[in-house]
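TA notes. Do not distribute before section.
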Amino acid sequence: MFSPIIIIEAMINGLLTGAIYALVALGLTLVYGVLHIINFAHGATLAAAMFAVWGLNAGFGIDPYVAIVIVTPVFFALGYGLQRFVIGPAAHGDDGNILLITLGLSILIENALLASFGSDTRSIPSDFAFSVVEAGPFLLSSAKLVGAVGSLVVAILFWLLMTRTDTGKAIRAVAREKLGARLVGINVGHVYAVTFGLGCAALGVAACLLMPTFYVNPRIGGAFVNIAFTVVVLGGMGSVPGAVAGGLIIGVVESVSGLLLGESLGQIGIFIIFILVLLLRPTGLFGARV
């Protein structure tokens, strides 16, 4: 039987990891909330962002946290361009086409990464990854603590953007009623592209916060997007607060399950939560009832 201190420490570390999960899920839920589609290229885009962070460090010695100011705007521009000039025109207004296009982009990005970097796993060597912060009887990873704080700051900025700016109002208007938004003069195509760009920008930040403690290979995005999808379903499709709450809950469940069942079985708890939410509350914690 584990002592209460060990269990509480596992829960705290789960919250720190869950904050990163929330950031990855944030882009997924934002795109769904406006475009009403699941972006199947989400995981591959995260892998590309992580390789970008690794490349900046390996080639130019840029610290992953400093790389945020480079990677974030680049991936916003990438996401904007993909939606405005590739996904939107190729979809011809059909959501089913968008799903197929993002699936194709996922395959394209993953294979481009395989061709460029091979299947080897890469990481960024850093002494900071092994440093810890003492909080009473608990030992917390410094890098995870920075990642959690950074993720929550980004989530707050997203919330402020959505609730306090004209861009956010336009995004919410398009999400609620696309035709009505177009009739009052909102450029729906631009709003779609901005939303997709913001989703990719969130992945850029997540990649910078992940790389000090994690590794990257061309297929790593799949593991994160599976968890992110569970987070989105738990929190409520399209809900930014739901993505944050869902990420924190899933992080704790994964950490405690790993402690009790072993690291290799740690994700069983995540999928039990996923099934229970689908059975008992399909709209999620913050999703609107229909």
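Switch to the second chain here.
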Amino acid sequence: MLDDDVLVDAGTGVGDLSLDEMARVNHVLLTHSHLDHVASLPLMLDAVAARRLAAGAEPLQVRALQSTIDALKAHIFNNLIWPDFSTIPSADTPLMRCVPITVGEVLQVGGKAIEVLPAVHTVPAVGFAAATTSGHWVFSGDTERNPAFWQRINQLPVALLIIETAFSDREKDLARRSLHLAPGTLAEELDQIDRNQRYPIYITHTKPAETGLIMEEIRRFDDSPNRPDDVRHDIRWLSAGQTFEL
């Protein structure tokens, strides 16, 4: 969550928010269409619908790739799995409005400038970089090897990077097939960071049963750089409830 009005993805973590917090969300940025990134969007909208309508709130703006929007409409907001909130209470005054985005676009969302970054996943996907007074907050989204991502963020003053590492190295083949990172591929990806850049790196999207092993494997490779000129990174685990001021 960026400030209290912009939500990046809408997985099960949205359930940690109170109704008041959900009602303050006016913008949702989706990285892609997979269930663990959109599961709570229909439930959150339903939970605060009456409150938003009574307050005369603007439609919730859902920004995503067109293919992600198409998937949401076909498989979730289809009046079979869930009501189509883009036409409720009417098409002119809906609870939700979907806005297509493209890679490279800089969004103006809730007073924030947020750039859409490339991602490499099994479905079309993106990451995001939000400009702050101390640099950019960068979120990789679900991705595997992604040279275009590093090329772009090496051009930005990065304050903090959040990057996925879903699998341990013992599941590296599965990680490759599902286009997720494992510690070994993460090490190769971090080698692409410009040597003049130094910023904290937070690991997210770890499989719950493997989090301890994943973080141990990451600590191990970071203690043993691949090249003589490699440096240790400031790598930490992102956990629910953490708050950052940038």
